[in-house]
Write a structure and sequence with these properties.
Chain B: Its cofactor is Mg(2+). Chain B: Keywords: Cytoplasm, Developmental protein, Differentiation, Endonuclease, Hydrolase, Magnesium, Meiosis, Metal-binding, Methylation, Nuclease, RNA-binding, RNA-mediated gene silencing, Translation regulation. Chain B: GO terms for molecular function: endonuclease activity; hydrolase activity; metal ion binding; piRNA binding. The complex is a heterodimer of chains A (379) and B (839). By secondary structure, chain A is α/β, with parallel strands linked by helices. Helix content of chain A is 39%, strand content 15%. Chain A is built from 13 helices and ten strands. In chain A, helix 3 links the parallel strand 1 and strand 2. In chain A, helix 8 runs antiparallel to helix 9. Chain A starts with a helix and ends in a 10-residue tail after the last strand. With 839 residues, chain B is an alpha+beta fold. Chain B folds into four domains: 73 residues, Alpha-Beta Plaits (2-Layer Sandwich), CATH 3.30.70; 241 residues, paz domain, CATH 2.170.260; 123 residues, Rossmann fold, CATH 3.40.50; 181 residues, Ribonuclease H-like superfamily/Ribonuclease H (Nucleotidyltransferase, domain 5). In chain B, a hairpin with a 5-residue loop joins strand 13 and strand 14. In chain B, helix 5 crosses helix 6 and helix 16 crosses helix 17. Classes of the chains: A alpha/beta (379), B alpha+beta (839). At the A-B interface, helix 5 and helix 8 of A face helix 2, strand 12 and strand 30 of B.
């Protein structure tokens, strides 16, 4: 609780820009950008700020958060809900965000199969008994491809004038680099991970030997492919309680894909119709004086486009105002040639399948029929 | 008898003490809010800004007083203090979209002040420290960092507890009871609304603007790339007898295209040189929704000189480009680096500071709502109406779903139980009245019409008019292509005018090229002082030609004019009906009178005021002012006020009132002893300004008219956009209440002299009642008489042979303001002011 706040107070003398907590989150984001994990869990997610930042990363399809305190998660969890915009233009990727209430000392099958697990400023809050369980739960049980652990570097504390014992009253310990690295190397060895050390929060010039303000260990599993088979003991029971779940609209979901395709098809049909009309009107106006030539040109432009429109061409030529009602049929093939439609459906067959029953088609199913109502205008 | 001073007093009144800080912004209307709210708060208690944040709902600063709470006008109107109800008409059983809020007996909300020693700054720390004592406080609480609300009373008035911060510091927390709030206190009302919004959020409804929507089953209208989200608008207020939740179905129209998509498709539709203007015209004033967070903004401007690569200064002082900012903050890639940026003048307040304009990237913003162009698209509106115009039974069903959701959701129920609150599961039912139908009087004839349809076009079709103006000398201008249409019009006019009593000569027929200048040249050459009216046949409904003609004929060369789009006369089966309408319209424009209803009140001048706001933001606002000139209310004086930003509308209205009185005097040789003002175009939350500023100015203006002149003044605020809906029980089902339904109980507000009238009939969907709020009244007229007069006036709009939603002077004022705002942009020539030239 309030860990970011407390730290900021202490680091007032040494000012980090951007603030240290943002640097930690950015570190994770950069890592995600580099390795493109699909399933990411944040242990000790607190007010879900990191999860909120990560939901914008387009590679991620599953996001999970875990915290021992439900109320702190609940306070801002609605930030993780889909936005109206997510419904308006569903994306290709699917995304599910789940928040769990529970302890990192307990195993729950919902945490299996992750690509990245982050523990940002978590371990120093753990009681000794929980800390003992932690490697077994995270590395042994969850066994993700990559684990990121960050924790304060106590050597830096001398530069933080306000710090008496620890940086935050809830910290149970703060390690120096040697302590953290020996714990990390030990853990990595036991569970067959490799580990590299880095950090955020550069020390001021001249004091470089104290190291980063926050030390970070990045653990990578040595034999990632064995992950699933290696699970010896799978607890059948859930130890965590789900407090929040949001499934984002995605084109992978047939319902959203169909909506998107139908909408795009209808819109494209309207564009085609309008372009045709515009062309005809401008030619009509250009050749207003010479009916013979006009007829020829119109016929020509119509023929170029499609033989389907023969009748229409005659109607236009035979007189008058280009009322919209004349164009009825827009060939599906033509619609399919538009890049957006093409991208959404992939194949022509898929297009036909998706719009069946949702769009009025000609009797042979080869064209979209547009409604022929009059444009009624009241004055 | 009083006499009018020969010229109105020129000196300005000394500044009123009650002048609000930004008056020019106060006269917004049509429910669209503009400008910072400056209504002085009269509530004893305000829920702090902190609570607004806590509410999960109201983000970004202070909430406006949308409900005009704390404006207590009834008190000052002596004769309605006891009772404000009318009496005439027959009783009707009604249901309204309201649910009673019930609380357990002796319910109260306990308000505590929380003090910390030593002082703690951070809100989260303050909460954490306080809630270490949950066993004392209980699990149900609302806390904003200094004020704590509890559903129960603690043992002592002052309780002191100690908490330890995590660095082991001891903090003394003092919990002091500051208030015991009865269920009806204003603070409680705000509190209910906050809790209710919490519930809506719990039910996974998405907040957009003020309302909540369900994103899970949207209706899609692919032809126009529209999505319609069903949702609810709701508010909890103190009504006449009880506190109720008013809930109505709301539909949010969203568009699955970004502003940039829209710009591109517009680019292909218009010529290059018109592109920027077209963008401004279509986009400015629209509400957009950002892709990356759930915020809505109004587009106030487009900056074509800027692009996403421009930089801005962040809070920490660093410079960053928009591209980088959105990439870093939201992983949003901006692909088009040449797009302009949108500017929104922020109306949110951050603390005491007004934040500056907000810059938005078109590619990252979705459009919402409808453009003017879409609204004019008949087919589209029809497609939309299928989904949004719900007939009474379906509407009632959809509203009932909200209560269903509430009752089925366990966590929502728990929250309500913990606070000791609950909602009635049935809609409010009560009794209203249907006043008797009016008789239509037309040149000695009396017509009854079927009150169910509120329309008498058939009954009066061939009857002579009260006053028919001759068409002795008139112009008919058309293009070569529309020669036949012009003849059709002429022939049909010859058919329909005799029975109306209109004397008609053949028009001077003039053929023109289909260009604006050609029309104008012909008008300049052909109009003589004897010309009665100029009729122009237009080949399309393109606005520029219409605007140019109207502008010329309303300002430089003031004569009545009638424009007809050729297409409207192209269908033989409807021609006669349309020409009949055109003939009536032309007659009104020339100063003729069509029909009247019986008006028992004598010496009364009725005034209607409405506002129009130019959608091209900030240009100007126009107020239409219309006042009756005769006893039968068939003749009207019309004038308008153009108000640019920063000007005070009311000064112009005073001038209008003075000239109207002078004209009245010319017509009647005496001054009216009563003036009744119907004021439309008042936005939510603006009532206070009206009461404290505009009404005193009217009174002031009347004083300047003559020493002994002391007419009785009534000011009635007319509101069309209300969430209230009434359903009439008939048999087993629900219908729209019939025209003439008056409601002045239950759903009115105890602190106002207000009532609802359903005056019009609708063919589909639910009828919307109009709300009337008498904010000032020295007339001593009985409520029943005010209600009846109001309903009578809804019969007097000459462009519609039927009853309309608002009193005719309001509709005339609207029509005038609209014409000036849309087409003329200047004050029309006052020579026209005694005719309905703008119909």
């Amino acid at each position: 609780l309030g860990k970011n706040f407390q730290e900021e107070q202490f680091t007032e003398m040494i000012k980090f820009t951007p603030p240290l907590y943002k640097q930690r989150y950015q570190f994770v984001k950069d890592l995600v950008g580099k390795y493109k994990p699909k399933k990411v869990a944040d242990l000790g997610c607190a007010d879900c700020t990191l999860l909120w930042m990560l939901k914008f990363c387009s590679c991620i399809e599953v996001l999970a958060g875990l915290d021992i305190c439900a109320s702190v998660m609940k306070e801002k969890m609605h930030r993780l809900s889909p936005l109206p915009g997510d419904y308006l233009q569903p994306t290709e990727r699917s995304l599910t965000v789940t928040l769990h209430h529970g302890s990192v000392a307990h195993k729950d099958p919902c945490m299996l199969g992750f690509d990245l697990v982050t523990c940002i400023e978590l371990i120093e809050h753990l009681e000794e008994s929980d800390l003992e369980m932690f490697p077994e739960v995270v590395f042994g049980f969850m066994s993700p491809t990559m684990v990121v652990i960050s924790t304060p570097n106590s050597e830096f504390n001398t530069l933080l004038p306000g710090v008496r014992v620890f940086r935050h009253p809830d910290h149970k310990f703060e390690w120096d680099r040697a302590q953290f690295q020996s714990w990390a190397l030990d853990t990595a060895k036991r569970y067959d991970y490799s580990v590299e050390f880095t950090g955020v929060g550069n020390p001021p010039t001249g004091m470089e030997d104290v190291g980063f303000c926050t030390q970070i260990g990045v653990f990578v599993k040595r034999y990632p492919q064995t992950s699933v088979s290696a699970q010896s003991e799978k607890p059948a029971e859930a130890a965590y309680k789900t407090v929040f779940k949001a499934v984002y609209p995605s084109l992978k979901d047939e319902k959203y894909l169909q909506n998107a395709v139908v909408s795009e098809v209808m819109f494209t049909a309207q564009i085609i119709k309008r372009n045709l009309l515009d062309n005809l009107v401008s030619e009509y106006e250009e050749n207003n004086d010479d009916p013979a030539e006009r007829k020829f040109k119109l016929q020509h432009s119509v023929n170029c486009f499609s033989e389907d429109l023969e009748t229409w061409a005659n109607a236009v030529v035979s007189e008058v105002m280009f009322t919209a009602q004349i164009i009825k049929r827009i060939p599906l093939r033509k619609i399919f040639s538009f890049p957006k439609v093409n991208r959404l459906c992939g194949t022509f067959e898929k297009l036909c399948k998706l719009i069946t029953g949702k769009v009025t088609l000609s009797s042979d199913g080869s064209a979209v029929m547009l409604s022929t109502e009059h444009e009624n205008e009241e004055n | 008898q009083q006499t009018l001073p020969s010229h109105p007093s020129g000196h300005r009144q000394p500044q009123q003490p009650c002048l609000p800080p930004s008056l020019s912004e106060e006269f917004g209307g049509r429910g669209r809010q503009r400008g910072p709210q400056s209504v002085p708060k009269q509530l004893g208690l305000q829920i702090s800004a902190g609570f607004q944040e806590l509410s999960l709902a109201d983000r970004g600063g202070r909430r406006r007083d949308f409900h005009d709470l704390g404006v207590n006008t009834r008190q000052a109107i002596e004769h309605v203090r006891e009772s404000k109800t009318g009496s005439s008409g027959i009783m009707i059983k009604l249901i309204a979209n309201y649910f009673r809020l019930t609380s357990r007996p002796q319910w109260a909300l306990y308000q505590y002040h929380i003090g910390y020693n030593p002082e703690m700054e951070a809100r989260r720390l303050r909460s954490a420290l306080l809630f270490q004592h949950e066993e004392l406080i209980g699990k149900t609480h609302a806390f904003d960092g200094s004020i704590l609300f509890l559903p129960k009373k603690l043992g002592n008035k002052v309780t002191e507890v100690f908490s330890k911060t995590r660095n082991g510091e001891d903090v003394k927390i003092t919990i002091t009871l500051t208030n015991e709030l009865p269920p009806t206190s204003p603070t409680c009302l705000q509190f209910y609304n906050i809790i209710f919004r919490r519930l809506l959020k719990m039910m996974n409804l998405q907040q957009i603007g003020r309302n909540y929507y369900n994103p899970n089953d949207p209706v899609s209208i692919p032809n126009h790339r529209l999505l319609v989200w069903p949702g609810f608008t709701s508010s909890i207020l103190q009504y006449e007898e009880s506190i109720m939740l008013c809930a109505d179905v709301s539909h949010k129209i969203l568009r699955s295209e970004t502003v940039l998509d829209f710009m591109y498709s517009l680019y292909y539709q218009v010529e290059e040189q018109r592109f920027r203007d077209a963008c401004a015209k279509e986009l400015i004033g629209l509400i957009i929704l950002t892709k990356y967070n759930n915020r809505t903004y109004r587009v106030d401007d487009i900056d074509w000189d800027a692009n996403p690569q421009c930089t801005f200064r962040r809070a920490d002082g660093s410079e960053i480009s928009y591209v980088d900012y959105y990439r870093r903050q939201y992983n949003q890639e901006i692909t088009d680096l040449n797009q302009p940026v949108l500017i929104s003048q922020s109306r949110r307040k951050r603390g005491s500071m007004m934040s500056g304009p907000v810059v938005l990237i078109p590619e990252l913003c979705y459009l919402t709502g409808l453009t003017e162009k879409m609204r004019n698209d008949f087919n589209m509106m029809k497609d939309l109406a299928v989904h949004t115009r719900l007939p009474p039974e379906r509407r009632q069903h959809e509203i009932g779903r909200l209560i269903d959701y509430i009752q089925k959701d366990d966590s929502v129920q728990k929250e309500l139980r913990d606070w000791g609150l609950s909602f009635d599961s049935n809609l409010l039912s009560f009794t209203g009245r249907v006043v008797q139908a009016e008789k239509i009087l037309q040149a000695g004839n009396v017509f009854d019409y079927n009150p169910q349809f509120a329309d008498w076009s058939r009954e009066t079709r061939v009857a002579p008019l009260i006053s028919a103006k001759p068409l002795d000398n008139w112009l008919l201008i058309y293009t070569r292509r529309n020669y036949d249409i012009a003849n059709t019009l002429l022939q049909n006019l010859f058919k329909v005018t005799p029975s109306m009593g209109i004397r008609m000569n053949k028009a001077t027929m003039i053929e023109v090229d289909d260009r604006t200048e050609a029309y104008l040249r012909v008008l300049q050459h052909s109009i003589t002082p004897d010309t009665n009216i100029a009729v122009c046949i237009l080949s399309s409904s393109r606005k520029d030609k219409y605007d140019a003609i109207k502008k010329y004929l309303c300002t430089d060369c003031p004569i009545p004019s009638q424009c007809v789009v050729a297409r409207t006369l192209s269908k033989p089966q409807t021609t006669l009906a349309i020409v009949t309408k055109i003939a009536l319209q032309m007659n009104c424009k020339m100063g003729g009178e069509l029909w009247s209803v019986e008006i028992p009140l004598k010496q009364v001048m009725v005034v209607g005021i409405d506002c129009y706001h130019d959608s091209l933001a900030g240009k100007q606002s126009i107020a239409g002012f219309v006042a009756s000139l005769n006893q039968t209310m068939t003749r009207w004086f019309s004038r308008c006020v153009l108000q640019s930003r920063g000007q005070e509308l009311v000064d112009g209205l005073k001038a209008c009132l003075q000239t109207a009185l002078r004209d009245w005097f010319k017509w009647n040789k005496y001054l009216p002893s009563r003036i009744i003002v119907y004021r439309d175009g008042v936005g939510d939350g603006q009532l206070n300004t009206l009461v404290n500023y505009e009404v005193p100015q009217f009174l002031d203006c009347l004083k300047t008219v003559g020493k002994d002149y002391n007419p009785r003044l009534t000011v009635i605020v007319v509101k069309k956009r209300v969430n209230t809906r009434f359903f009439a029980q008939s048999g087993g089902g629900l219908k729209n209440p019939p025209p003439g339904t008056v409601v002045d109980v239950e759903v009115t507000r105890p602190e106002w002299y207000d009532f609802f009238i359903v005056s019009q009939a609708v063919r589909n969907g639910c009828v919307a009642p109009t709300h009337y709020n008498v904010i000032y009244d020295t007339s001593k007229l009985k409520p029943d008489h005010v209600q009846r007069l109001t309903y009578k006036l809804c019969h007097m709009y000459y462009n519609w042979s039927g009853v309309i939603r608002v009193p005719a002077p309001c509709q005339y004022a609207h029509k005038l303001a609209f014409l000036v705002g849309q087409s003329i942009h200047r004050e029309p020539n006052l020579l026209l002011s005694d005719r309905l030239y703008y119909l």
